[in-house]
């Protein structure tokens, strides 16, 4: 909080100071205020259009908010400005992961890790992508397919059936609540 207050004072004196906007955006993200962080990062980017660090950070926040097209454009712009900046490559990987493009995510995160091998957060992200690509390391699995879902678990067949019933019940509730019904069943969605 002291960092945010200090940066507030700096920005009162110099409202377009890109570095201070960027730092305050980082502080706000860490304080759990991603929307406010995005505003500061956008202002930093407007104030200094080649500020690839601000673009990469904003891309990451936009990806987490589901604004993938804007996030992708910013991540690509940051990577074009500084191809050896690990957070820009990580932002590309996060966008790809959110889009379900797991191979692209894996490659971007591999590059980010090569650029910053001691970054624990990057290692965790890369490990998550690897787990999704490989699937769960279960010795045995129990599987149930419904009209809308595929449920796989390592617990027991009875539990897989319970999970499948619960998923279908939740889906039915929301379909009735919002007056939405599939004209034709969608391909099964995987739940683990």
Low-confidence spans? none
Mean of all residue-level pLDDT scores? 88
Give the strand order of the largest sheet, numbering strands 1, 2, ... along the chain: 1-2-3
Largest sheet: 3 strands, mixed
What is the approximate shape?
elongated
Number of helices: 9
Q: What is the helix fraction of residues, given as a range?
A: 55-70%
Total number of strands: 3
Strand proportion: 5-15%
| Class of secondary structure makeup | mainly alpha
What's this entry about, in short?
The protein is mostly helical. It is built from nine helices and three strands.
Descriptive overview:
With 192 residues, the chain is mainly α. Helix content is 68%, strand content 6%. It has nine helices and three strands, in the order H-H-H-H-H-H-H-H-E-E-H-E. It has a three-stranded mixed β-sheet with strand order 1-2-3, covered by helices on one side. Helix 1 (2-13) runs antiparallel to helix 2 (18-30), helix 3 runs antiparallel to helix 4 (52-64) and helix 7 runs antiparallel to helix 8. The radius of gyration is 21 Å and the shape is elongated. The two termini are 39 Å apart. The relative contact order is 0.07. The mean pLDDT is 88.
Could you give the topology of this structure?
Layout: H1 2-13, H2 18-30, H3 34-47, H4 52-64, H5 68-81, H6 86-99, H7 102-115, H8 120-134, E1 142-145, E2 149-153, H9 157-177, E3 189-191
Parallel strand pairs: 2-3
Antiparallel strand pairs: 1-2
Which features does this protein show?
mainly alpha; 192 residues; 3 strands
């Amino acid at each position: 909080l002291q960092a945010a207050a200090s940066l507030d004072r700096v920005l009162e004196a110099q409202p377009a100071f890109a570095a201070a906007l960027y730092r305050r955006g980082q502080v706000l993200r860490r304080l759990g205020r991603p929307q406010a962080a995005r505003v500061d990062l956008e202002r930093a980017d407007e104030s200094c259009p080649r500020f690839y660090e601000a673009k990469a950070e904003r891309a990451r926040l936009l990806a987490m908010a589901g604004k993938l097209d804007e996030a992708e454009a910013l991540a690509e712009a940051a990577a074009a400005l500084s191809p050896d900046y690990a957070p820009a490559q990580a932002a590309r990987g996060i966008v790809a992961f959110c889009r379900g493009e797991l191979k692209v995510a894996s490659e971007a995160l591999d590059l980010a890790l090569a650029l910053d091998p001691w970054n624990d957060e990057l290692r965790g992200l890369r490990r998550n992508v690897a787990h999704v690509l490989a699937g769960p390391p279960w010795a045995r699995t129990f599987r149930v397919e419904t009209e809308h879902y595929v449920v796989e678990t390592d617990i027991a067949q009875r539990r897989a059936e319970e999970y499948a019933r619960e998923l279908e019940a939740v889906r039915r509730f929301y379909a009735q609540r919002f007056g939405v019904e599939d004209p034709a069943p969608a391909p099964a969605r995987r739940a683990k």
